[in-house]
Design goal:
Strand content: 5-15%
Distance between the termini: 72 Å
Strand order of the largest sheet: 1-8
Radius of gyration: 26 Å
Largest sheet: 2 strands, antiparallel
């Protein structure tokens, strides 16, 4: 009987296992296999939309990271200890465990992954939408590697979707191969003819990657390698397209009334739509520390009531503006305002010592109509990844050694819009200053400083002291007592590879001195 019982149980178990196996072998409800997706233009568009979402999502972390690294701003905030993450970057006390550094590194690989998904699953011959989306993915790969190489030096080269766990253990990439890979993706996208063009200078198709936007990114990739002739040639195509021009109101470029203006090359949307809120914390972070300030009634109705006071400008930045434009300079006053100016203009006054050197960002000021329901972390102001002024400055730099007359022409176009003195010829130091002023708060300076080899001179004292603006308008500088601070040669030219990556990838070698 026992034998029969065990046999029956065994048979029943086998039947149940087989039955369960058959039950588990049915299609999962509500899930579409990747091999069955990307079969319609709508599905392909959704993959492209994910890439644009990736770009927008990474902008906040990237700009905060790179602005904290440069010499234009202090960490700021409500006071020492308000945000140790930003402070460590600003003072050069970060290490490989830093969350923002890890986040941006991983964010660039998220872009690359999502682009590779498109390249492996979308047939560019299927439709015009498919062709455009495939080549948008290639542009995004080129952009992501420009960021990765310029910040980390030798990131792993990923050219497909990584499926096997062993594939994640990739070695450091070789710079020449990495740059060639970025160039390949960008040049193929440009040559495809599938990327759109703006129809005119007033066409607002800047929310999508255009042919000219891809050329501008490629020009930057060339310039970062010292390929000045190639950079000059491809940037000239953007300029000669006639599809872009400098916006005539410098201080209003970021206003929601001027979204997708004639100067914008790549602009990512934060819609004015309560049903479709998009997280945009950067603007609230950079707005003045309103809890420690007061202003007149008209100003309170016009400007955002909340702001967290990160990235207050340095005196160094203000003084460099003055060397070019003097105190009443148009661009200076559309970028920064002094405490004295704001006292007289909007009745601003310090109600509690404020982490500031007496200068306030005006270019990035946050207006009440740019936030949703009083919440500054939901700003409807768009993100401009690249604008025409940067193209002109890149072209000017490339042409200093290629065609000095053109370098001067493009340089003076920037100066003319800034209402600053024009010049008869341009040198690299002049270009370095101009780029600092024009692109202030746009996250380009740290990479420029390291590329130009002048980062140590500009950043060696970061983290030594912090200024506090007092109630009477005077300044108090407080020694931060950091045992180690500031940019170190042979180390900070590159960021550390994230420790979390090193723990799972034994083949990835850390950058020097981390």
């Amino acid at each position: 009987m026992k034998k029969i019982t065990f046999a029956l149980l065994a048979g029943a178990s086998l039947f149940m296992a087989a039955s369960c196996s058959r039950m588990l072998d049915i299609d999962q409800h509500g899930v579409t296999s990747i091999s069955d997706y990307y079969k319609t233009d709508a599905e392909i568009e959704s993959a492209g939309a994910a890439l644009y979402s990736d770009l927008r999502d990474q902008y906040v972390n990237g700009i905060m990271l790179k602005c904290a690294l440069d010499d234009d701003f202090y960490a700021g905030g409500g006071g020492r200890g308000d945000n140790s993450s930003v402070e460590m970057i600003d003072e050069y006390t970060f290490d490989a465990e830093h969350g923002s550094i890890s986040g941006y590194f991983q964010g660039m690989y998220t872009i690359i992954h999502d682009a590779c998904v498109i390249l492996e699953n979308v047939d560019p011959n299927f439709s015009a939408v498919a062709a455009r989306t495939v080549n948008e993915a290639k542009v995004c790969i080129g952009y992501a590697y420009l960021e990765l190489i310029s910040l980390w030096g030798t990131p792993p080269l990923v050219d497909h979707v990584l499926m096997d766990a062993n594939e994640y253990k990739m070695e450091n990439g070789k710079p020449e191969e990495l740059w060639a890979f970025a160039e390949k993706n960008l040049t193929e996208a440009i040559a495809s003819g599938a990327l759109p063009h703006k129809s005119s200078v007033n066409d607002n198709t800047t929310w999508r990657l255009t042919q000219e936007a891809a050329q501008a990114i490629l020009g930057k990739v060339y310039l970062w390698q010292g390929k000045n002739k190639e950079a000059a040639d491809v940037l000239e195509k953007v300029i000669n397209s006639g599809k872009y021009q400098l916006f005539n109101q410098y201080g209003e470029m970021l206003d929601i009334a001027n979204k997708h203006n004639c100067e914008s090359l790549i602009e990512l949307d934060h819609p004015v739509d309560y049903a479709n809120l998009t997280f945009n914390f950067l603007n609230g972070m950079a707005m003045w520390r309103m809890s420690k300030l007061d202003m007149n009634a008209d100003a309170k109705a016009y400007y955002a009531a909340d702001g967290y006071g990160f990235f207050p400008p340095t005196k160094s930045l203000y003084d460099e503006f003055r060397t070019v434009e003097a105190e009443d300079g148009y661009r200076l006053n559309e970028t920064l305002r002094t405490y004295k100016q704001l006292q007289s203009q909007i009745g601003l006054k310090v109600t509690e010592p404020n982490l500031s050197e007496g200068y306030f960002m005006w270019k990035s000021r946050l207006k009440a109509d740019q936030i949703v329901m009083g919440m500054p972390w939901f700003s409807t102001r768009n993100v401009i990844l690249m604008r025409y002024a940067e193209v002109l400055l890149l072209a000017a730099e490339a042409n200093i050694t290629v065609n000095p007359a053109k370098a001067t022409e493009y340089f003076n176009m920037i100066r003319t819009r800034a209402q600053a003195p024009t010049v008869g010829s341009v040198t690299l130091p002049m270009l370095q200053t101009e780029k600092r002023l024009e692109l202030c708060y746009e996250g380009t300076r740290f990479q420029d400083l390291t590329r130009w080899g002048i980062a140590y001179d500009k950043l060696k004292d970061c983290g030594k002291e912090m200024p506090y603006l007092q109630l009477d308008g005077s300044l108090e500088y407080r020694n931060l007592n950091n045992p180690v601070y500031g940019f170190k040669k042979g180390k900070h030219e590159l960021l550390p590879f994230p420790a979390v990556e090193l723990r799972v990838n034994s083949n990835l070698q850390q950058n020097p001195n981390y």
